[in-house]
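Structure (tokenized):
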């Protein structure tokens, strides 16, 4: 399967699960971040093996600046079954979209 894997417009200053890779599956994805307002802010993206609690080692992007009404992306990365992608919005005005493809493990 390929295409849209998850979308979120989270409240500010907390981690939220964007995508959990299903069991016995491998997913290749990237995260697109869109700032919906004319105020700069920051975002965070993390990938946690087996849904582990957030730790520094999970950071893919940390306090990454995003300009007014701008869009940013992560590099493509691979997840295994049970891995979780989490996102964090600095101002609550960001949209996160996970796109990619999945295949059986």
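Design, position by position:
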């Amino acid at each position: 399967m390929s295409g849209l894997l998850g979308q979120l417009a989270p409240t500010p200053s907390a981690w939220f699960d964007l995508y959990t890779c299903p069991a016995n599956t491998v997913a290749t994805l990237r995260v697109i971040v869109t700032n919906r307002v004319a105020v700069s802010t920051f975002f965070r993206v993390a990938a946690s093996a087996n849904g582990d609690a957030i730790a520094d080692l999970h950071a893919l992007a940390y306090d990454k600046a995003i300009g007014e009404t701008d869009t940013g992306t992560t590099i493509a990365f691979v997840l295994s079954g049970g891995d979780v992608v989490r996102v964090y919005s600095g101002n609550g005005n960001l949209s996160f979209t996970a796109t990619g493809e999945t295949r059986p493990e």
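Reviewer-requested clarification: The chain has a mean pLDDT of 97. The chain is about 0% helix and 60% strand.
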